[in-house]
Amino acid sequence: MRRRPLLYLVICWVIGNGAASILPTERLFTAWAGASLLLAAGMLPGWWSRKHIILLWITLTVGGAYWEWNDLRNESVLPEALGWPSARLEELAVHAEGTIVSTVERDGDRVDFTVKLEKIRSSGGQDGSLPVGEESKSASLNRDGTSGAAGTAAQSVHGEKIAVQLKLQAEQEIAAAATWRRGDRVALDGSLASPSGARNFGGFDYREYLRNRHIHWTLKVAGTGQVKAVPPETLSLRKLLRWNDAVRAELGAELESLFREKDAGYLKGLIIGMQDELDPETYRQFSRLGLTHILAISGMHVAVYAGFLLFVLSRLRLTKETALTVTLLLIPAYVLFSGAGPSVVRAGVMSMIALYAARMGVLKDGMHILSVSALLMLIWEPYFLLNVSFQLSFLVTAGLMLYVPLAAPLVSFLPRRLGSAVAVTLVAQLVSFPLTIYYFNQFAALSFAANLVLVPFITFAVLPAGTAALLLGKVWPACAGALARVVEIMNDATFDAVEWTGRYAGITIWSSPSLLWIGLYYALLYGLLRVLKHYADTHHAPLYADDETRPLEGLRPHSNPRHSAAALPGDHQRMRTLTRCRIAAAALAGGLALLLYMGYRPERLSPEGSVNFLDVGQGDSILITTPGGAHILVDGGGTVSFGKREEWRIRRSPYEVGAKTLVPLLKKRGIHRLDAVILTHGDQDHAGGLQAVLEEIPVSALLFNGTLAQREEYIKLMKTALERGVRLYGVHRGMALSPNDSSKLSFLWPVPIKQDGEEIPVLEEQNPASVVFRLDMSGRSFLFTGDIDSKTEESITAANQSEGIGGASAVDVLKAAHHGSKSSNSAAWLEYWKPSVSVISVGAHNLYGHPSGEVLERFIDGGMLVYRTDQHGEIQMRIRDGEIQVRHKLKAGIDPGQS
């Protein structure tokens, strides 16, 4: 406490914040009482002093209370302002006024930005039924920022932020949206919508993501005609922000003129922190190797910037104090200019504190500077604690300070500069590992090598050369163009190296670990490195620690004192120390290996097997886990597109079910390999998401209905399967698959299509040929039906009866055919199988009217329990003690956060 008092205080503050963010209020008090007892135990003799313990307890308590106070205030005022409960605000047409407080980003036909509201009112009737802008179509902003809109009185809602999602209606609107900047006063007409919560267990929670940014509603706007923007006239912070965004946009345009499209998007993120135009495939390849930190402005950039300024100022023969002061004053400008993300804010605050301390001659150790930076940021915005960038930035920085001195002796055999680089890179990888697998659920074996080689190359070659080309663009175009060609060559080398390394990266998939696991990991790692350092120090230490002169008579001629039988004084002690270090290191390494093994194991919901009906919107995707641990994925959902879109509407990173929902869920559950993927048929809402699955997760076998469809996506899927070495099996009636003794898949459909030759038959109408199979597992039975119609249902029951299996046909759970369509799920079909439970995989508010009311009535009249992914989200069925236990993510008809 005496050496680093501020560090311990900040740790207590973070623990208080973290406990309050995780635990419900009643459990928080219990945890607080337990922590109080632990701190009270620290008052025992030989521990910290009473005043220090009391100070730590106060900090812990105030930290938790501060979070709770901020969290209670983080509520929307719109229901009160508009006079309606939250549920009635959905799709309510409103007129809103406020200030743009974020950069305006366009991707295809969508424009996103955040507005800090000042006034809002309903622009329709009480039910919000009037079209957007009907009452406020004459709305405009006067030059003084006031609204000229007619209609009901607007209510003041100062401080409420809202996320605007604008859909461009015509290509000509792109130019209008490009003029909007942070700081502009705006009046908008649109409809309110609450952000969607997580619909799968462990899925991304967009509602919570926005809430951590004090945003509770989105405003959907149709076209730029519903937005009136006025730039600020007087000099103010808003005008400064607008100017800052304008400069960044101009520099972005300059990069576009100097470089190829792919290089321009890459360098925009690298130099000026504009990541919205980064090529998605480039980002994916960097992500596989753990290199995404290099694509965003971070502490490295601030260090380079500050070092460059100090170098230039010293060459201008300014005094050290003046150089430090000028650099201190210019760092906030760079932080603001680069987008002010958590990592760059942390680096900026740390740099400013360090520069000020150096200027005043009271420079403390780096851990104190880091502690002050963390405390200031968390007081300013407690929700930074939940930001992955903030967590990685501070943990890696603290880890480098704490672990690098321990790791340095282990690489002492290397040249000094190389050894230093290896130690820093190794420690950064080890420290970031838990958070990497927690948030991204994958780790590359070659990540260390990639970071060791590519990060210095990009930092000290690509970044300076790209920045120089940008700065020379206006003053010396010829030189800038030549330098840009050199940068493009370096970029090509970087991209090729990343792509080549990614093929052999050794990607491992991890389930998200618990906080206890993460804490044990850091403790064991620290203990192991400390023991290894002690071993290295002891091994290389001089034999004698004192200056006593010792006689030579006891030494035999030509003997080695270190191994002499005469045993020099201290030699036995050295050997005992080394032996103890070896034993301790082995024990710690064994504990760490066991911890990693436990963390690597995939999630097991039940030792008797489970069936998870994932919510992938309007489509099917079911994950089966057998008692033996085999994972079988049935269909993969898919985003359905209607017609060919105009080129300007196409987004760089469109929402795709497989990449954005299915693959992250499988990785989060630690599924390293899928033993089989069953594709019931080739329609996009069943097959589309499997493309991302095959690209990201190893698959042993792909089972399909034995036919092809002349569709670009389907053909691409099959080619990808062949390229990845996935075994293809065309299944048909009569085939069976037994993953283990207690699980069996019996295929009931389709019947083989007879065709001359060896080519796979082409079938455009895929629904009737859907794969239908029965799963018997641990004494329970499930029936999976794809999108078959009632005619196919009749064929299956007739074939079963002809084979004499009608009496043993009852199943426990029926996956409703074709999303509950009235063309399927006939009364005769239900009577034949007699299911107790029906599951309907269907998208919320889908355009097809699924499920049919007639079918739902049929299910209910049959005495079945009905579960629907549009109302229940993911539905998990676990077999335990011979019974099926069901849990689902959402309350029926209620999205999380609405309840």
TrEMBL record:
Region feature (Disordered): 122-154
Principal subcellular localization: membrane
Sorted UniProt keywords: Cell membrane, Membrane, Transmembrane, Transmembrane helix
Subcellular location: Cell membrane
Reactions accelerated catalytically: 3',5'-cyclic CMP + H2O = CMP + H(+); 3',5'-cyclic UMP + H2O = UMP + H(+)
Low complexity bias: start-end ranges: 145-154
Pfam families: Competence (PF03772), DUF4131 (PF13567), Lactamase_B (PF00753)
Membrane topology designation: Multi-pass membrane protein
Matches recorded under InterPro entries: ComA-like_MBL, ComEC_N, Competence_DNA_uptake, DUF4131, Metallo-B-lactamas, RibonucZ/Hydroxyglut_hydro
Transmembrane segments: 30-48, 294-313, 333-357, 369-386, 392-411, 418-437, 443-463, 507-529, 583-600
Signal peptide location: none
All copies of domain Metallo-beta-lactamase, residue ranges: 618-845
Its biological purpose: Counteracts the endogenous Pycsar antiviral defense system. Phosphodiesterase that enables metal-dependent hydrolysis of host cyclic nucleotide Pycsar defense signals such as cCMP and cUMP.
NCBIfam families: ComEC_N-term
Name of the protein: ComEC/Rec2 family competence protein
